[in-house]
Each structure stands twice: as C-alpha cells, then as structure tokens.
C-alpha cells in the first residue's frame, strides 16, 4: 500500500519505520499543507501534525478523495465538518485520540466502570494525564475520549473542566513532565476510599503501530470510522 505521511515529527518518523517494515511504500513525508502534487498519489494519508494545521491538512486530502487516518489532537471542534466532508467526497476518515491497542481496551474498561458507578452517589470522578513537556494541547485527546466515555454511561457527569473537580463535573488534571509518552488515570474518590484505573505507554511505538493498522484497514472503505471499528471492540 502507498502511504503519505502528513506531519513528520516524533510520530511521523516512527510510523515511517513501522509502515516500511510492514511492506508499505511511504510516498510522501510532509511538514507542509498537502496538495495533489506533493502527496504523490497515496492510497491512504496518515496525519500526525499540529492542532492548528490539522483541519486544513485533512480537508486538502479529503478533497482529493484520499482516505485519512488522523491522530492529531486539539482540533476537535471541527470534527463534524470533516466527517461531512468525507461523506460528501465519497471517501473515508478515521480520527483516533489514541491508536494503541492498550488504550482502546482501557477505553472499554473505563466505560464498564462508568456504567457500574452510575448509581453510586458517594464517589466523585477525576482524570489525570501525564505527557512530555513538548505537548501543545491540554487536556490530551485521550483524556477527552475517557471523559466522553464516562458521560455516555453516567448521567451524573456531563462536563469536564481543566484542573477542577466538582460534584457533577469531571476534573481533568494535565501534567507535563520530562519525556513521558502518555499516562492516563481515572479516579473515583469517596470519603473512605479510591478506585483507580491506569494506562501507561512505555514508548510511542504502540500509537504508531495502531495508526498503520488503521491505514491498512481503511483502504478502499468509505465513511467515518473509529478505532472501535478497526479493532472490532
Ligand atoms: N492519536 C494518537 O495515538 C497520538 C496522537 N498524537 C498527536 O499527534 C500530533 C503530533 O505529535 P508529534 O509527532 O509528537 O508532534 P511533533 O511536534 O513531533 O510533530 C509535528 C510535525 O508536524 C509538522 N508540521 C508543521 N506544520 C505542518 C503543516 N502545515 N502540515 C504538516 N505538518 C506540519 C512539524 O514540522 P516542524 O518540525 O517543521 O515544525 C512536525 O514535524 C499531536 O497532536 C499529538 O498530540 C501523538 C501521539 C499519539
Ligand atoms: O501528544 C502526545 O504525545 C500524545 N497525544 C495523544 C493525546 O493527546 O491523547 C495520545 C498520546 O497520549 C500521546
């Protein structure tokens, strides 16, 4: 399969290595807005760039009818617009706040726990995410997905707020530390105890491998998808 990498920083470079090892041809490595010319006719684009450029990058690819796997976080207010664009252009789009298998299992566990906790009034809930000091957005896309998973099952919570936990509001605490690849925890606290579930990434390799899996899966599909579709979860 021919893959174009839009964004060629920490993630783009690891995806390049993994995609090549899996027998794919990387036909473009871009640090600029994609065009029909510089994309070099790929089957799929994998987009890991910056929050402020992701929308324009995705738009340019979808307008050229190229399916996009997007891992860039921090631009989600425009996700609906992108999904409409993918449908209108008869191509495919998949956003994943986190492409690792472990985090996608953790998302499922988070939803099960949220469902269990829905009728237990004694517990407040808060999330913590720890990332490297270069990260541009806060809270992380993964923390937002965890919060959305909780809202889906537990009507007690319907909003999140950075650094502040209230009765009906999830606090998301964002910590920036050294070169941490990504650690996420969900806490339920009562007067007498605490429940914690936690995922720790040891490197970026799991994110990159998941993005390549998603690219292999989406080739020749049309519509809007998530990692749940890819992993059959
Ligand atoms: N969903 C997931 O599983 C994961 C998501 N992420 C997210 O992916 C994104 C990228 O992460 P990471 O690789 O660590 O970040 P980096 O900052 O290392 O890489 C971003 C790259 O984008 C390039 N760039 C700048 N402008 C453009 C443009 N207009 N078009 C295309 N590329 C451009 C930058 O170029 P230059 O070097 O010249 O500035 C840089 O190479 C972040 O939003 C991060 O949160 C990260 C890991 C996992
Ligand atoms: O910026 C990162 O590095 C990461 N970003 C993603 C996020 O915002 O959740 C995924 C992962 O945690 C690494």
UniProtKB/TrEMBL annotation:
<dbReference type="GO" id="GO:0009089">
    <property type="term" value="P:lysine biosynthetic process via diaminopimelate"/>
</dbReference>
<keyword id="KW-0520">NAD</keyword>
<keyword id="KW-0028">Amino-acid biosynthesis</keyword>
<dbReference type="InterPro" id="IPR022663">
    <property type="entry name" value="DapB_C"/>
</dbReference>
<dbReference type="GO" id="GO:0051287">
    <property type="term" value="F:NAD binding"/>
</dbReference>
<dbReference type="GO" id="GO:0005829">
    <property type="term" value="C:cytosol"/>
</dbReference>
<keyword id="KW-0220">Diaminopimelate biosynthesis</keyword>
<keyword id="KW-0560">Oxidoreductase</keyword>
<feature type="binding site">
    <location>
        <position position="132"/>
    </location>
    <ligand>
        <name>(S)-2,3,4,5-tetrahydrodipicolinate</name>
    </ligand>
</feature>
<dbReference type="Pfam" id="PF05173">
    <property type="entry name" value="DapB_C"/>
</dbReference>
<protein>
    <recommendedName>
        <fullName>4-hydroxy-tetrahydrodipicolinate reductase</fullName>
        <ecNumber>1.17.1.8</ecNumber>
    </recommendedName>
</protein>
<keyword id="KW-0521">NADP</keyword>
<feature type="binding site">
    <location>
        <begin position="71"/>
        <end position="73"/>
    </location>
    <ligand>
        <name>NAD(+)</name>
    </ligand>
</feature>
<dbReference type="Pfam" id="PF01113">
    <property type="entry name" value="DapB_N"/>
</dbReference>
<feature type="binding site">
    <location>
        <begin position="96"/>
        <end position="99"/>
    </location>
    <ligand>
        <name>NAD(+)</name>
    </ligand>
</feature>
<feature type="binding site">
    <location>
        <position position="31"/>
    </location>
    <ligand>
        <name>NADP(+)</name>
    </ligand>
</feature>
<comment type="pathway">
    <text>Amino-acid biosynthesis; L-lysine biosynthesis via DAP pathway; (S)-tetrahydrodipicolinate from L-aspartate: step 4/4.</text>
</comment>
<feature type="active site" description="Proton donor/acceptor">
    <location>
        <position position="131"/>
    </location>
</feature>
<dbReference type="InterPro" id="IPR000846">
    <property type="entry name" value="DapB_N"/>
</dbReference>
<feature type="domain" description="Dihydrodipicolinate reductase C-terminal">
    <location>
        <begin position="102"/>
        <end position="231"/>
    </location>
</feature>
<comment type="function">
    <text>Catalyzes the conversion of 4-hydroxy-tetrahydrodipicolinate (HTPA) to tetrahydrodipicolinate.</text>
</comment>
<dbReference type="InterPro" id="IPR023940">
    <property type="entry name" value="DHDPR_bac"/>
</dbReference>
<feature type="active site" description="Proton donor">
    <location>
        <position position="135"/>
    </location>
</feature>
<dbReference type="GO" id="GO:0016726">
    <property type="term" value="F:oxidoreductase activity, acting on CH or CH2 groups, NAD or NADP as acceptor"/>
</dbReference>
<comment type="similarity">
    <text>Belongs to the DapB family.</text>
</comment>
<dbReference type="GO" id="GO:0019877">
    <property type="term" value="P:diaminopimelate biosynthetic process"/>
</dbReference>
<dbReference type="InterPro" id="IPR036291">
    <property type="entry name" value="NAD(P)-bd_dom_sf"/>
</dbReference>
<feature type="domain" description="Dihydrodipicolinate reductase N-terminal">
    <location>
        <begin position="1"/>
        <end position="99"/>
    </location>
</feature>
<keyword id="KW-0457">Lysine biosynthesis</keyword>
<feature type="binding site">
    <location>
        <begin position="141"/>
        <end position="142"/>
    </location>
    <ligand>
        <name>(S)-2,3,4,5-tetrahydrodipicolinate</name>
    </ligand>
</feature>
<comment type="subunit">
    <text>Homotetramer.</text>
</comment>
<dbReference type="GO" id="GO:0050661">
    <property type="term" value="F:NADP binding"/>
</dbReference>
<dbReference type="GO" id="GO:0008839">
    <property type="term" value="F:4-hydroxy-tetrahydrodipicolinate reductase"/>
</dbReference>
<keyword id="KW-0963">Cytoplasm</keyword>
